[in-house]
Design brief:
Distance between the termini of chain B: 58 Å
Strand order of the largest sheet of chain B: 2-1-5-3-4
Number of domains of chain B: 2
Distance between the termini of chain A: 62 Å
Shape of chain B: globular
Largest interface: A-B, 56 and 52 residues
CATH topology of the largest domain in chain A: Aldehyde Oxidoreductase, domain 4
Strand content of chain A: 15-25%
CATH superfamily of the largest domain in chain A: Aldehyde oxidase/xanthine dehydrogenase, molybdopterin binding domain
CATH architecture of the largest domain in chain A: 2-Layer Sandwich
Strand order of the largest sheet of chain A: 3-5-1-12-9-10-11-21
Strand content of chain B: 15-25%
Number of helices of chain B: 5
Radius of gyration of chain A: 27 Å
Largest sheet of chain A: 8 strands, mixed
Helix content of chain B: 25-40%
CATH architecture of the largest domain in chain B: Roll
Oligomer: heterodimer
Order of helices and strands of chain B: EEHEEEHHHH
Shape of chain A: globular
Number of strands of chain A: 29
CATH class of the largest domain in chain B: Alpha Beta
Largest sheet of chain B: 5 strands, mixed
Structural class of chain A: alpha+beta
Number of helices of chain A: 20
Chain lengths: 769, 163
């Protein structure tokens, strides 16, 4: 391979560096009407009435629509492939506007106006009368008898409960001499905080409806818009331009259905919905806050006799991705640190909080925090070095998961741990920090994580691809997998150039903008799957394209197709490498031949029936100022085995971004709600503490490149894995520094003060000393 | 009710005059009246830095700067950095070379603050650069490669060898 594996510059970098890249708002049609949304200002209740009389009198207001006008259609929003099996379809539990409001920020009414100011004034002028109901914000409290009920079909607010049963837990814990290592581990509600808020615009086009949206999943959104407005899916066209990040929030139908409906309600005129940052925090999606209860029963040698894990996932008001996230989190427990006797129960519970959906890592940052915190405590319980503990008990090489058929082909975990250990200087630092006893203490810690690539066998994995041979011998390519900032288009160009035999990845023109009317059907960007799944259809389509190229070349050169290849943009004779014809000459001749004209194109769909593990770890070094309850991350390194790197520089950059998100998750981020009202308290970028460049040390990323056997180009997941193990690694470093085992994120001064106080570390003698 | 005011200013080297809505932000004016769409909106309250432009050489969040205040000022946006034949400036090229761009939404704001930093012709430490860049939020890059691009370009311009 000569093009794959090189640190090429992104195909979209020039336009992004010059400010030419067009995001949805840069493509706004002139005269688009502004839609502003009236959000509920109670956490739970019924809308009794909406008085629109004042709003409609405001100059510039075109129309007001309320929850009483919205179609009586419940629809799902999750960015999952459609399932032909009704039992596996996503839960349809919300409407375009809701009379039964279930969280502070729910959508009650819209004002459509000529300009933004009129739309905002109109929203302010609406008078909403509610019948308030009691509300509940905590997942476990929502499960209690007598708790406020959010959805009629889900008693005790339990959206779903699934279990893992392995061996005989009750019998196993009776083994004499076992040590019980038990803990509760709490993760907070956080938000994606892509710098471009979600937004979209819609207009009618020859009787159909077009929505241009900042989304990761155009083809899925087409289906959801059709469902929500009660129109055939083919009546809907979704166009996805460049987007300013997504991280899973835009792996949901957000306001595209409402926008489409609003346009139709004003005769198909163009209308726009631009979420404010405050709306993005509350009225889009958030990461599930999951609470874990883990009981590990270990033998004096550290081996795991039995393990019990309960997971309570706070779903918020609507199902969105629902149970699939905590189910994935639970599924990692029996695999990462295998144990013969396990009882796991995962509950997804409705509460009166913003709806939780997909977010980078899909349950694994939560699971990694809980699991690798508990594992750290197990190591301490038997006085074993925590890295050594992991090396002994983490998933072994050759492990095969019975359900997904994933195989741990290499000893990825141990190779990553070993590399991480070297890079951070683990052994030396453990020794050097051992005697820190004063108010400032240093520590080092690590955490591993479990992840996989794509969604097979839980859901459909399909990838479609179209290639057109251009007259200059370059190839234009369309993929259903989307560029969302991660660099997918560049990886696709490199893989296609390699598969076809072009000179450079620059000879592949990836059509970045997906349009559901013309782009081959694909499922978009999620599950860290793009490079893996697109690889299959890219290679297959390249083979088809080459077949057609050879067939035409045979007519021109009288050489056998069996002895042809494409190398460096030329058709060559395989046996001696002689150039038979360049692709540009071939394309021109084929196109303009008066006797035998052909535009050489190829298109195909590949159904992927495979998945791949993608593992790694984080090592962190911290300095803890105990009296100030302040932690500084001094060094941090991630090591990943994501198979063969398609573009090492972009892979490294991807890891940096994930590490940054993990540091924020560990140290500062949490969306807060007033416990008395359910009102969000910090839904803006000033009060919600996203890491700035001052909050990081330099970020180090490294790779173990074991080629993935199931993958065309040897590659597998990297998008989400870097966000998984950072927070627990920092947590374990703090444990190493202070002896305090933290059980709650974020590890900000507020939470550290409580934990350090309880441990007796906060006392006046620090001042004297 | 909307009120309008005539303002005169220089945008990317060109003197312009325009009637503007006195309620409009400089972001709105640059995007809507001059189609300078490199100026991005991420929060519209001066928290994220995506709308950053240079006003008389100083970086400002244009979303919390009234268009009316631009009267008499010289404003530079990212569009001004690219040469007449599409040539990239050294700092733009460094963002490409260092893989400092992902979704690209924060990029224009960062680049203009980088220009402000570079035009001081001072040699800053890496920690000082962190502080100078900390008005910008990025969720994709972890800032690492952005910092590298700015630091390397600064050293190159000052003739200081890279480490």
């Amino acid at each position: 391979m000569s093009i794959v594996g090189k640190s090429e510059i992104r195909v979209d970098a020039y336009d992004k560096a010059t400010g030419r890249t067009k995001y949805y708002e840069d493509r706004m049609p002139g005269g688009a009407l502004y839609v502003r949304i009236k959000h509920a200002e109670i956490a739970h209740g019924f809308v009794k009435s909406v008085d629109v009389s004042e709003a409609v009198r405001i100059k510039g207001v075109v129309k007001v629509l309320t929850c009483f006008d919205a179609p009586e259609i419940d629809f799902p929003t999750a960015g999952h492939p459609w399932s032909m099996d009704p039992g596996h379809q996503d839960v349809a539990d919300r409407r375009l506007l809701n009379t039964h409001v279930r969280y502070w920020g729910d959508d009650v009414a819209v004002v459509i106006a000529e300009d933004e100011v009129a739309a905002m004034q109109g929203v302010r002028a609406l008078k909403v009368e509610y019948d308030p109901l009691p509300f509940v914000l905590d997942a476990q409290k929502a499960m209690e008898e007598g708790a406020p009920q959010l959805h009629d079909d889900y008693p005790n607010n339990i959206l779903k409960h699934t279990s893992v049963r392995k061996g005989d837990y009750e019998r196993a814990i009776r083994e004499p001499g076992l040590i019980k290592v038990e803990g509760w581990y709490d993760t907070p509600t956080v938000q994606h905080c892509h710098i471009e808020n979600h937004g979209c615009f819609a207009y009618a086009d020859n009787g159909r409806i077009t929505v241009v949206s900042s989304t990761q999943i155009p083809h899925i959104v087409r289906r959801v818009v059709g469902q929500a407005i009660g129109r055939p899916w083919s009546d809907v066209q979704i166009i996805k331009p460049y987007i300013g990040g997504g991280f899973g929030n835009k792996q949901d139908a957000l306001y595209e259905p409402l926008c489409a409906w609003c346009s139709l309600e004003v005769g198909g005129r163009p209308v726009r919905i631009d979420c404010t940052r405050e709306e993005t925090f509350v009225s889009n999606r958030v990461r599930h806050a999951i609470r874990f209860h883990i009981i590990s029963w270990i033998r004096p040698d550290g081996s795991m006799a039995a393990r019990k894990v309960d997971l309570y996932s706070n779903q918020g008001a609507y199902a969105s991705h629902g149970h699939s996230i905590v189910a994935k989190a639970m599924g990692s427990f029996p695999q990462l640190y295998p144990c013969d006797n396990m009882e796991c129960d995962a509950y997804t519970v409705y509460t009166n909080l913003p709806a939780a959906g997909a977010m980078r890592g899909y349950g694994m940052p939560q699971a990694s925090f809980a699991n690798d915190s508990n594992i750290e405590e197990c190591a301490h319980a038997v006085h074993m070095d925590p890295v050594e503990y992991r090396n002994r008990f983490i998933m072994p090489q050759g492990y095969e998961d019975g359900f997904s058929k994933n195989v741990n082909y290499y000893d990825s975990h141990r190779e990553c741990l070993e590399r991480g250990k070297q890079l951070i200087g683990y052994d030396e630092k453990i020794k050097a920090f051992a005697n820190d006893k004063g108010p400032i203490r240093r520590g080092v810690g690590c955490a591993s994580f479990w992840y996989n690539t794509a969604v097979w066998p839980i859901a459909l994995e399909t990838s479609s691809n179209r290639m057109l041979l251009n007259l200059d011998g370059t190839v234009t390519m369309q993929c259903g997998e989307t560029e969302i900032g991660q660099g997918a288009d560049t990886a696709f160009a490199q893989m296609a150039a390699e598969a076809i035999g072009l000179k450079s990845y620059r000879d592949v023109r990836v059509v970045s903008c997906q349009d559901t009317d013309t782009t081959p059907t694909g499922l978009g960007a999620y599950a860290s799957r793009q490079t893996y799944v697109a690889g299959f259809s890219i290679r297959q389509t390249a083979e088809l394209l080459k077949k057609k190229i050879f067939a035409y070349a045979e007519k021109l050169t009288r050489q056998s197709v069996d002895n042809m290849d494409v190398r460096g943009g030329n058709v060559v004779r395989k046996s001696d490498g002689k150039v038979l014809i360049s692709l540009s000459e071939l394309a021109m001749t084929a196109q303009y031949n008066p006797q035998d004209s052909e535009h050489i194109t190829a298109e195909s769909t590949y159904t992927i029936k495979n998945n791949a593990y993608s593992f790694g770890c984080t090592f962190a070094e911290v300095e803890v100022d105990i009296p100030m309850c302040r932690v500084t991350v001094k060094n941090i390194v991630n090591v990943h085995d994501c198979g063969t790197l398609i573009n090492p520089a972009l892979a490294e950059a991807q890891v940096h971004g994930g590490m940054s998100m993990a540091i924020g998750y560990g140290m500062s981020e949490q969306l807060l709600f007033d416990q008395k009202t359910g009102r969000p308290l910090n839904n803006n970028l000033l009060d919600y503490k996203l890491s700035t460049v001052m909050d990081h040390p330099d970020l180090a990323a490294d790779f173990i490149e074991n080629p993935e056997p199931t993958s065309v180009f040897g590659t597998k997941a990297l998008g989400e894995p870097p966000a998984c193990s950072g927070a627990p690694a920092i947590r374990n470093a703090i444990y190493n520094a202070t002896g305090v085992a933290l059980h709650k994120l974020p590890m900000n001064p507020h939470n550290l003060y409580a934990a350090f106080s309880e441990a007796g570390l906060i006392h006046d003698s620090w001042q004297e000393g | 009710m909307a009120q309008y005011k005539l303002i005169r200013c220089t945008i990317n080297g060109e003197p312009v005059e325009r009637m503007i809505d006195v309620r409009a932000s400089l972001t709105d004016m640059l995007r809507n009246d001059f189609h300078l769409t490199s100026v991005k909106k991420g929060c519209e309250v001066g928290e994220c830095g995506a709308c950053n432009v240079l006003i008389d050489g100083e970086a400002f969040n244009s979303c919390i700067y009234l268009a009316a205040w631009a009267d008499g000022k010289s404003i530079r946006t990212l569009e001004s950095l690219t040469g007449p034949n599409g040539e990239l400036s050294d700092i733009q090229q460094a963002f490409l070379d260092e893989a400092a761009i992902q979704c690209g939404f924060c990029t224009p704001g960062f680049l203009m603050t980088a220009v402000e930093i570079l035009e001081t012709k001072k040699l800053y430490t890496r920690d000082e650069l962190r502080k100078l860049l900390s008005g910008h939020l990025c969720r994709c890059t972890g800032y690492e490669n952005i910092l590298n691009a700015v630091e390397k370009t600064m050293k190159r311009r000052l003739g200081v060898p890279a480490e």
